[in-house]
Specification:
CATH topology: Rossmann fold
Distance between the termini: 39 Å
Largest sheet: 7 strands, mixed
Structural class: alpha/beta
Bound molecules: S-adenosyl-L-homocysteine
Number of domains: 1
Strand content: 25-35%
């Protein structure tokens, strides 16, 4: 399939699964998923499915990336924290919509490889760190938006604390081996509002750093 047709099909799959926000679709049209999928599965990068990446992790399904990004309502004034860099694809999509993106992963190797792709694509507004993201990133807090791409049983306290008033956090919650719920948390003057978006399935949010570090 030629690249133009492949891109058409990719965008069609996103739309048909509910990604309707034009700014999000444009960002996903610009960011080529190919370089974020290395090795054996590279040829399947344009299919709407999650794929294995290094360290036993997965790059999310493109339509899920689109739906989460859409739910986050990012503007170009926002400072965003992503927990769970993985391949770096989600951070790259966010970089097109936000002022600045901080992304953290507990696996040093994933952060190193994602940084290589960010540099090759000239995505200068992303900063990637190896860190336990369940504690957030106190040095850079507070954030306008937080996106968590690994599932916790409940929203981690430090992340709630690092969200600005008016800020939004989108994350999957629930037991890791069952279906989880994607939820959106909005911080108001009075506290936190929660809304439930859809069932999803993510790898677990684990504490501490990965073994490869
Ligand atoms: N957003 C990624 C997919 C993430 S897969 C992408 O676009 O490709 C989930 C990632 O969360 C994994 O890479 C895993 O290592 C990471 N992770 C799990 N627990 C974490 C924690 N406490 N802190 C930081 N990263 C974590």
């Amino acid at each position: 399939m030629d690249p133009a047709e492949r891109k058409m099909q990719f965008l069609f799959a996103l739309r048909s699964r509910g990604v309707t926000d034009n700014a999000v679709l444009e960002a996903m049209e610009k960011i080529d998923r190919g370089p974020f999928v290395r090795g054996h599965f590279a040829s399947r990068a344009y299919e709407d499915m999650p794929l294995p990446i290094a360290c036993g992790q997965t790059i999310s399904q493109p339509s899920v990336v689109g739906l989460m990004t859409q739910a986050l309502k990012v503007s170009n004034r926002d400072k965003v924290l992503e927990v769970g860099t993985g391949s770096g694809y989600q951070a790259a999509v966010l970089s097109q919509l936000a002022r600045r993106v901080y992304t953290v992963d507990r696996h040093r190797r994933l952060v190193r490889e994602a940084k290589e792709v960010f540099a090759a694509m000239d995505l200068g507004n992303i900063t990637a760190f190896t860190a336990d993201g369940s504690r957030g990133l106190p040095d850079q807090a507070p954030f306008d938006r937080i996106l968590v791409t690994a599932a916790a049983e409940d929203p981690p306290g430090p992340l709630l604390a690092q969200l600005k008033t008016g800020g939004i956090m989108v994350l999957p919650v629930g037991q890791s081996d069952t279906v989880q719920r994607l939820i959106r948390v909005t911080r108001t003057e009075e506290g936190f509002d929660y809304d439930e978006l859809r069932p999803v399935r993510f790898v677990p949010l684990l504490e501490g750093l990965g073994k490869d570090t």
